[in-house]
Every structure is written in C-alpha cells, then in structure tokens.
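Q: What would this chain look like folded?
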Amino acid sequence: MSSPEQPAPDIKEKILQAAAKEFAEKGYTGSRVDAIARRAGVNKALLYYHLGDKKTLYGEVILSNLRGAQGAMNAALQHAQSPEAKFQAVVQAVAHMIAQAPYLPRLILREAAFGGLNLPDQVLKEIGRIFALIRTVLEEGQAQGDFRSTNPLITHFLIAGSILFLSVSTPLRQRLGKLENLDVSLAESPDEIADHINDILLHGLLIQEPETDV
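A: My prediction, written as structure tokens:
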C-alpha cells in the first residue's frame, strides 16, 4: 500500500519516467529493473507491485504516451471543422505529444529498426488506432473533394516519422552544420514544426500555376 505522502499515482508516474529514461538510453535488452527502481527511488518489490515485470513495464511506458497522443488528437479534432483544419490539428497534436515525451522517439525508432521485437501486441493496436484517426481525416477530405487520393499509411509515417526523427536529430544536425558550413537551423517549438510539416504535406513543393483559358 502507498503512504499518504506518496499516493500510488505519483509512484507509478515516477517509475514510468525512470523506465522511459533507462529504456531510451540502453534499449530493452540492456535495461535492468533494479536500475529503473534506483532511478525512481523505489525498491523492486514496489515496482513489480505497481507495474509488473520488465516486459509489462516497457509496454506501459510506450502505451501511456500513445494513449495520451490519441486523446489529444481526438480532442483537437472536436474543435476542427474542415478536413484541412482537422489534418493540421492531428499534426499539431503529434508534435506536442512528442515534445512532451522526449524519451519516446528513441524507443519507437529503436523498435522500428529492429522490427518491433519487444513491442507487445497492445502497443501495435494502439498505433493502429492512431493510424485509423489519420485515415479517417484523409477519407473525409477526399469525400468532400478537398484532398486528392493518397496512401494513408504512407501519410501516417510521413507525419510521425518526420517528427520522431527531428526530435532526436538535433546533435546530428548541429555537427552537420559545422562540418559542411550549412544552415541546419530549425524552429524547435512543436507548433512551428507542425506548421512546416503541414505546409509541405498540404501544399507540396511545386508552385501551382493559375489555369488560363486557351
């Protein structure tokens, strides 16, 4: 049982934060439950009591963030009217979620590189629910004649992949800029990153010439 000074939700959050850091730094295989317990300032028995074994804990770290992302996306969609506004709201919600979960990109990209070997099915199902939200927005835009037909899965990964990679690439971009004397500056706020991605995905790169009567 938890003490009045430190209720269970606080303990669980401390453990999840500590586990996210450990897993991001060392990966699933290299992480140890006792190291996570030390980071969280709890004993292993308490960790197991609140969140279970390492595999369960790993899944919960990712799930808690994905559920937050889905909730943020659903809330944002309720206030958006047009398909374009809904698409922009989705991208902004993803950008803000990743900014608020700085360890998540390393976990997701590491798992993507190794085929998701350590991801439980529940995590994949949650990712599938987020994909379904994006697909619904695209299908609505196509039905209303605002969007052309595109592959929703590729669009999903263009959004998530871009933001995930940007979030972990800052040191790499800085080195590249110094070595090659390149301007690799990038607006770092979630809203500005979302604006860049929305602009490119919604409007593309080609300048659309006005139609003229022949």
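Residues 54-78 form the longest helix (25 residues).
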